[in-house]
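Section 3.1: Structural characterization of target chains.
Under the original work plan, the team committed to producing a structural model for every single-chain target entering the pipeline before any wet-lab resources were allocated. The record below documents one such target. The sequence was received from the expression subgroup and is listed exactly as submitted; it comprises 499 residues.
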Amino acid sequence: MKTRMPLALALSAALTLALSCPASAAGDVLAPGLTVSTTVTGEGTGHNSWTVTTQVPGGSSPDPDAPPSALGTREHADALVTSLRAKGFAARAEEVDWPAFADTPRGPLGWRVRVGSFADRAQAAATASAMTAHGFTGTVEWTGQDGPEAQGPQRVRVAVVDPRRFTGRVVASHGDSVAGRRTTSALAAAAGALVGTNGGFFVIDPKDGIPGEPAGAGVYQGLLQSEATSSRPALLLGERASIGVPRTVVTVGGREVNGVNRKPGIIRNCGEPGDVPTDRPRHDTTCTHPDELVLFTPQLGTTTPAGDGVEAVLDARDVVTAVRPAGGEVPAGGHTVQGVGAAAAWLTEHARPGRKLAVSTRLFDGFRPVHPAGVVNGGPWLVRDGRVAVDAAADGIVHPGDPSFVYGWGVKRNPRTMVGLDRRGRLLIVTADGRQPGFSEGLSLLEGAQLMARLGAVTAINLDGGGSTAMAIGGKLVSSPSDATGERPVGDAVLVVPR
């Protein structure tokens, strides 16, 4: 009987071989100290099939990567199977277990209900239509994206930057402005980057803030452009790359500022004191806060959001030049400050034309002040101290009362973008294509963590993934994005640029 090699081990073995032979087609030297390796591994599609997964009641999201509601209780699953079988559908209940995350329980995560096993998608789609006619809701799925037991194929790329030999820089880029979205390949081409990948999480829907703004820490060209999300990790770039937990402290006129370059009262991914419904990180969730002070920089690149509250305009010396309703231009070299609720009352009292409201922005890694040239937000942790350690619950990937979110986002296979550092201080930038049956299935969070550890990372984090995952070489897209519309415009990118 043939024994299957674990996916992460098979991938890492193939990539290690490629990295050790950088002149080969699989491992290309783009510059001294910079290589990119590609591997395709896995067992093909023969053991996978199409099926129809029923949906449990749940909300909808404008985020194209939002997982459908697919898991319920055992009681719900049994009742649904009985109902489906009564209508002639070959339904089954399947238990889904918690993966070996560092901070989650073991045992059942939930139960999914599926109908049939089909050789092609059209057959599954026909069954889904028949189910709809009987009042059931179903989603056509490929079992190759279920998780580790599904095997491959996988298509993975690894860029390795050795700071001792590479004379260029690794930078974070949002393009010409914080607001707005651009493709990874466009950002890479504009910067003349040798390699570029998508970066951190960002706002997509206008209801969640300003499209393109980072949903977490963002520093570009040494300037803070977005505040950190409490306890979430990030990639810090400068003379030497590092991974840490940034903490931002911003004040205006001595009063603490809640956010930078975002709509006051709207906090994507939550994670701040006073946020509702939670002041802990909760991924892909938009929290609210009634009393906020938000700072805007000229790099926002658009007018500040209109709405309730007031806005003070500050010149390059932090002197108030005007107080106006919210919404308007940010002066070159200056700032504006918006306040809502109690913060609006404070701003009205203190922001008098001619008065100075000193702006201070500081960044800490834990309790240590840092001055990185670039910061790209991410999460969760994948590897710490050389060991797999996925903190899905602390990072907000686990949504209380909603097992379907962590199942769809972290347990199932998806395209992934990850970064890590090995013991030699080399930066590993990894992308895995996914959601493309027979071409590349993607990785679960745990598989991604296992891969990073086997590649030698002593510390590693997850960046934005799903339809955002992309890698460009020489400004040209080389990966295969999963969105039907092609490469997705993103908020920022990690770029490896020559000297």
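Residues 21-25 have pLDDT under 50 and may be disordered.
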